[in-house]
Amino acid sequence: MCGIVGAIAERDVTPILLEGLRRLEYRGYDSAGLAVLDSKHHLQRARKPGKVAMLEQALSASPIHGTVGIAHTRWATHGEPTESNAHPHICNQTVAVVHNGIIENHDTLREQQRAKGYTFTSDTDTETIVHEIYENHINKGLDLLAAVQATVKGLHGAYALGVISKQDPQRLITARMGSPLVIGVGIGEYFIASDVAALLPVTRRFIFLEEGDVADLTRQSLRIFDRTGKQVEREIKESELSADAVELGQYRHYMQKEIFEQPRAIADTLEGRIVNDQVIEQSFGHQASEIFEQIKEVRIIACGTSYHAGLIASYWFESLADIPCRVEVASEFRYRQPHLRKNTLVVTISQSGETADTLAALKEAKASGNVHSLAVCNVAESSLTRESDLILLTRAGPEIGVASTKGFTTQLTALLLLVLVLGRRHGISAKREKELVHHLEQVAAKVEKVLEMDESIRLLSEQFGDKEHALFLGRGTMYPVAMEGALKLKEISYIHAEAYPAGELKHGPLALVDSEMPIIAVAPNNELLEKLKSNLQEVRARGGKLFVFADGEAGFKSEVDVTVLDVESINDVIAPIIFSIPLQLLSYHVAVIKGTDVDKPRNLAKAVTVE
Ligand code: G6P
Questions:
Q1: Is the CB of 329 within 6 Å of ligand 1?
Q2: How many CB atoms within 10 Å of residue 337?
Q3: Which of 99, 495, 592, 594 is deepest in the core (most CB within 10 A)?
Q4: Which H or E run includes 418?
Q5: Total-model pTM
């Protein structure tokens, strides 16, 4: 999704803006641009479709410098990814704007502005904002801050904005509603960005703007106004992330790095949250005990990979903790007038904490008045954590690869902690909790061991390079694991992949099975094993090529058309975390063979901050 960087300083800000854009590349985008006010206070702009590297090339051919500037990576929504649609958008060579989010009333604004004779140079909703600021407000005598404040009052939808003007060259104005925006605090300089990662080389001190805030930055001063226009103070927070937390290091791709970071990320997610073989309830927030006491059922809401984590957790909630649990895709939940019973815990799961549908679904759920909310999230200062009663942070560290890996397994780890604390009140005995905690504490080491399969999976992946379709099968918690495996493969290798509960095979997908269709099965050693084996026989009888990731003790043997990869033998409860790892490695290696852009797959974004 789109990214914003901005800076006001004594030094030349162009290199800061470019480095910030590079650091936001992981979010997914299809054009990039920047605008600065030069020493004569003229607006200078450069924009390019494609990668930030293209913009850099253009800038080394004709450099622009300035001490105030804004920059943007655009993920096309309104209008194609062309130069004229790329941000910043400029009105009358005077005001420049970068914008994340979607302005829902842009059609109305555009009609009104056309009627007044304004001309448009792009198809974007953003251009209506810059016309509104300049033509409708500055031209009528307002200064830049007042013009932005007046403009945002008339915007419906989501926005994070960076605005500069040649008439007010010592200022950078920023505003947010529904899209994330942080202010970076330097010494005699300020920065803005849609994500702290963009600014880590220049500061570790951040202010997180709240919904409806507008901020006025000069080199020496910062004023923030809330949605009512009242000047407010917002706390400065120190980020614990270091600039190299987002460096690639020895790895070829971020996804690969993140797959291998999982043992550490899982251990960090558990750290300090278990004492004397019990999960500490306060890890979820100071109101946790009071809220958990009332909970009778759980509703999980999420998107993408996080939704798959929710599906696995729903098996755990019902089978381990005896708590009714339902899981929904956020974009469905938010529009279907759901019925939520009193004493439901609404659990949102999100790596980024900024997914528009998940945020909107949470708002819907809260509006019903009956519920308590808990966010499982990887970003401490995200919109989702701010909106939730309770929070359990996954401690995966920044996840850059668009396809989530360590985000997913740390979500599962965190969700299992939640199952245990809630389950305590619904029949999980101290003895059973101790047993499960013991298994959880072994997960990091087991993941380390499973990562040793890397080379054998790389070799296996060679058989997938020419495939167009793949089918993933699992039963029980392994069904959502199979769904996640299929999602990973389709996201980054562009192979069409589907997941089915193995028992459903006969009800349709069997018709697709032939020697060209690889079938990947996930087979832990549990009570469903024999049933899964029968399902796999059905595949073999139809000439399908089977690839089985099986518990070493499940009794599978490689033979003609059946390739078996032994996975560490483990307890059934934690099996979903462990079995996800080889599937991640498989899709990674297949994507490398196919030569796709592994970390930034086409058409996808890391954080989907628009609907
Ligand atoms: C996008 C990402 C996925 C992610 C999903 C939900 O589709 O590409 O990797 O699972 O959004 O994101 P969230 O940040 O809410 O977990």
A1: no
A2: 8
A3: 99
A4: helix 406-424
A5: 0.77
pLDDT tens-digit map of 475-528: 999 999 999 999 999 999 999 999 999 889 889 888 888 888 899 999 888 877
Active site includes 488? no
C-alpha 611 to ligand 1 mean position (Å): 13
The pLDDT of residue 408:
98
Half-sphere exposure of 526 (CA within 13 A, CB side): 17
pLDDT at 381 > cutoff 80 = no
Closest CA relative to residue 522, chosen from 506, 535, 508? 535
The region that residue 375 occupies, defined by phi over 0 for left and psi between -120 and 50 for alpha, beta otherwise, is: beta
Please name which of 182, 163, 129 lies closest in space to residue 353, comparing C-alpha atoms. 182
The DSSP code sequence of 297-336 is EEEEEE-HHHHHHHHHHHHHHHHTS---EEEEEHHHHTTS
Testing ligand 1's pocket by substitution, the residue of 328, 347, 352 carrying the most ligand atoms inside 8 A of its CB is 352
Determine which one of 166, 257, 406, 606 is catalytic: 606
Q: Cβ(348) to ligand 1 under 6 A?
A: no
Q: Is 606 a catalytic residue?
A: yes
Residue 180 has pLDDT above 80, yes or no: yes
Q: Whose CA is nearest to atom 13 of ligand 1?
A: 350
Decide if pLDDT at 240 tops 80: no
Q: Which atom of ligand 1 is nearest to the CA of 604?
A: 8
By alpha-carbon position, which residue is closest to atom 5 of ligand 1? 304
Q: Which residues of 199-217 are buried (b: 16+ CB within 10 A; e: fewer)?
A: bbebbbebbbbbebbbbbb
pLDDT, tens digit (0-9, with 9 covering 90-100), for 107-124: 999 999 999 999 899 999
Compute, in angstroms, the gap from residue 354 CA to the centroid of ligand 1.
Answer: 9
* Predicted pLDDT of residue 157: 84
Query: Which residue among 179, 255, 305 has the greatest number of ligand 1 atoms within 8 angstroms of its CB, and so is best to mutate?
Result: 305
Flag the least confident range among 274-278, 376-380, 540-544.
540-544
**245 Cα–ligand 1 center, Å:** 20
Q: How many CB atoms lie within 10 A of CB 606?
A: 27
* Helix (H), strand (E) at residue 500: strand 496-501
Asked whether residue 540 carries a pLDDT value surpassing 90, the answer given is: no
438-464 residue pLDDT tens: 999 999 999 999 999 999 999 999 999
Residue 1 has pLDDT above 70, yes or no: no
Dihedral sign computed on CA atoms, order 402, 403, 405, 411: positive
Q: Report which protein residue has its CA nearest ligand 1's atom 8.
A: 606
Distance from the alpha carbon of residue 480 to the mean position of ligand 1, in angstroms = 16
